[in-house]
Structure formats: C-alpha cells, structure tokens
Amino acid sequence: MVEITSYYLKPTRLVPNSPQPLLHYKGLLASEADRQPVSIHERLDANGWKTQWIFRYGPTQSSHYHSRIHEAMVVLSGSATIRFGVADTEDDPEKNTWGGAAEPGGVEVAATAGDVFVIPAGVAHKTHDTSPEGEGFALLTPGKGRGVP
Questions:
Q1: Element (H, E) at 44
Q2: What is the C-alpha R_g of the chain?
Q3: Structural domain for 55, as ranges
Q4: Residue 46 near residue 40, CB atoms below 8 Å
Q5: How far apart are CA 95 and CA 114, in angstroms?
Q6: What are residue 122's phi and psi, to 5 degrees?
Q7: Mean pLDDT (whole number) for 44-67
Q8: Which pLDDT tens digit goes with each residue over 129-147?
Q9: Are 139 and 76 in contact (CB under 8 A)?
Q10: Pairing between β-strand 137-141 and β-strand 125-131 as defined by DSSP bridges
Q11: C-alpha separations of 126 from 1, 26, 37, 116, 145 in Å
C-alpha cells in the first residue's frame, strides 16, 4: 500500500503557498522498472502532465515557486531533503540551506527514489542534501506543469 501524505502550507510573508495540499506519494514507484523515464513519461502523459525535463540536482538549490503552474515531481534515483512552503532569506546557499536563513515554518521531507510529489501552484520548494552527492539525485518533472484556470 502506498503511503500518501498531505501537507497544507499557510502563506508566508514571501510565499503565497496554496489552499490545495502538497501531496507526497511515498514509494509509489517502488521498483526500478517503474522508475524508467519512458514509463514515467507515458504515465504522466496519460494523466495530462506534459514532461519537460529530467533534472539532476547538486547539493542545494534556491527556494522557488511557480505562480500559475502545478508541478508533478518524480524521484528517479538517490535521496534528498526537500523543503516546502518557505523562502530563502539570504542569497548565500550555505546560509539559506544549513544556516537557518529561511523563513520559519514550512516542512522538510525526506525524498527517495520512487517518491512522487504533486506541488500546487504557489508552493515554494527547494531540494538539498542530495545523495549520492553531485549527480546522483535525479527528478523527472513536467516543466510547464498543469496550468491553473
């Protein structure tokens, strides 16, 4: 049975977030065969999500959100921490990732291969603490997501 967790993230001073929940489908794509990019692409396409890219993250990224686009994020390999719902408060990636230079609140989620996230428009997200370090944490995500009417 797939574990589904819903997170309701309140607006902050810098991030609108959404009244819609952030959804985390833990281990939805449990087998390596399920995580093949072509298979995932076909599954997303069949459900109205247009896949735009496969992305490999380094050790951190800046917090960001998409104001009018929902995003589905599929973890293909590796593991990482993903912070949702808050903005970075400094430009220094070391400080805003590990030094507390982020807005209070939000949620940090441990992501592993096979996890799927549905991120509503307006919800901030930031990936960090990737493992294996460098190019081991890969995501397949519909870059243009699903528009908000």
A1: helix 37-46
A2: 15
A3: 3-147
A4: no
A5: 29
A6: 95, -10
A7: 84
A8: 888 765 556 666 655 444 4
A9: yes
A10: unpaired
A11: 28, 18, 22, 15, 17
Helix (H) or strand (E) holding 46: helix 37-46
Q: How many domains does the chain have?
A: 1
**CATH label of the domain that carries residue 37:** 2.60.120.10
Is residue 34 classed as helix, strand or coil in its secondary structure?
A: helix
User: Residue 102 above 60 pLDDT?
Assistant: yes
Torsion of CA 127, 22, 68, 135, to 10 degrees: 20
Q: Which of 48-57, 59-68, 87-96, 112-121 has the highest mean pLDDT?
A: 112-121
CA proximity to 140, closest of 47, 43, 63, 69: 43
pTM for the model: 0.87
